[in-house]
Every structure is written in C-alpha cells, then in structure tokens.
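Reminder to self: keep the SMILES exactly as supplied, no canonicalising. Ligand is zinc ion.
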Amino acid sequence: MTQTTQNEFKIMFWGTRGSLATPDIQCGKAGGNTICVEVECGDHVIICDAGSGIRSLGGKIVSERKYKNINLLLSHAHYDHIEGIPFFAPMSSSEYCVDIRCGKLDGAENTFEVVGGFMRRPYFPVGPEIFMSKTKFHQLEENQSFDISPEIHVKTIPLVHPGGATAYRIEYDNKSFAYVTDTEHSAGETNYDIVEFIDGADLFIYDASLSDDELPEFEGFGHSTWQEGLRMAQSANVKRYFAFHHMPFRCDNALDEIEREINAQMPGSGVAREGYSLVL
Ligand SMILES: [Zn+2]
Ligand SMILES: [Zn+2]
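Structure tokens returned for the bound complex:
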C-alpha cells in the first residue's frame, strides 16, 4: 500500500502511451496503458486523464479506501484520454464522489456530453446511467483557474490540438506540477503561452509523441516533440521534465535513448514510464 505522508505532493504514472494502448513485449518497460496520471496532494487525489491506465488506479483507490472524493481533470476527449472511464471502479460505487472537469471541445456541448458521447451505441453497450458514484460534470472556461481545496490551486490554458485540449498546472504546498498534453507546435516556433504557464514548475510533463525529425510527417495531428519539451523546460527553468504520451511505435530501446539525451541536459529528468512515481 502506498503511503502519502502529510502534505506530500506525489505524482504517479498509470498510463503513458498516447493514441493507442500498446501491450507489446518490446514496450513493456514503459508500459502499454493509455494516458492516466495520479496526483496526490496530502489527503486529496486528483487524476489527470482517464485512458486505460485509470482501471488499475481505480482498483487501488477502492482497495486502499483512503479517498472518497476524486477530482478527474480531462485534457480532452480523444479515446486515449477517456476510454478508461467506464472501467474506473469508484464510479461503480455510491461511496464515491467524482468531480469531472473538462474544457470546451468542438462537437460536445459540455463535460457530460464528453462522457455520454462515447458511452453509447454503437460504440459502447451501456451509458453513463450505470454510474453509482455521485458524479458532477464541470465545464471549464478558457484560461479558467479553480481551487480543489483551500490549499490546492489549479490553472489552465488551452492547447493547440484538433478539437481543443486543456493544460493543467496544479499548485500545492509551494510546489507545482504542469500537465501539458496534447499539443502541436510548428518547427522553430516556440509556444510562449506554454513557456509562461510552466515557469519554474517542479515537474513538467509534456506531449513528446514525436521527435523533431518526425514532426513534419505528422503535421495537423496535434502533437509535439521531446526536444521541444526539453527546450521549453530549460527556458522556463523547470526543475524536472518528463517526456510523456509515447507513440505506439516508440519501443523501450528508443525511449531509453531519448531518456539518455534528456538526462544529459537535465539531470533528474527523463521519460515517463507506467508505475513510476515522484515526490515533489
Ligand atoms: Zn492523446
Ligand atoms: Zn488528442
């Protein structure tokens, strides 16, 4: 059982794979589950995105019985960020309160529609009426800030992604975690909104789907590169940077190589892998 000491600010990766789950043997070290990150701030738990990794996290939350109120922050509604919602065990129990937040997305009126829109025929057998938890759906305005508790402050900015996406910066106990995925940049053009947003963050995780060499081939898909993440981390004086949202074709040996290059420039930084945790 994982223990969080008082005021501990702890991040754990439950899914780091972007686009599609990748349970291939040659990807086993980084893990194959899609996007899900657990953020524990003292006695609160916040979850960033609900890809397939949220299934195991839900199992842990139910067995530990430590949290009854859960805050789920969705970056957007692409499948790799929401497909785990129906399999998140706390939502099948009336003991839990789940607050789900999402920014405005093309094609969905509100956050309830983001979830209900894919939990319906012909995509899924049952709708959100199966949930037993006290579930609240919140719609975020662009650049909205909000508090999860008097000690936990969250800022947001919109990202450059087809249909829209939102980045979150969680601040607690004088430390900060910047969660920035999915977003596209054009080669040679830094997104200064992001640089400002992540300024001085203790931990910054970023859409590192691609490499600079691959970027032109994927124009319009809404993704960025591990090198761009590193450049922004350095210019924003971030303390630790982890490349995140690995493409299904990025196997462990390639990720190890990326990690060596990141680590050489920013010691203590690297590549996000499932099951890895950090205390800020
Ligand atoms: Zn994604
Ligand atoms: Zn996406």
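Points to follow up:
The mean pLDDT is 96.
The domain at 9-272 is CATH 3.60.15.10 (Metallo-beta-lactamase; Chain A).
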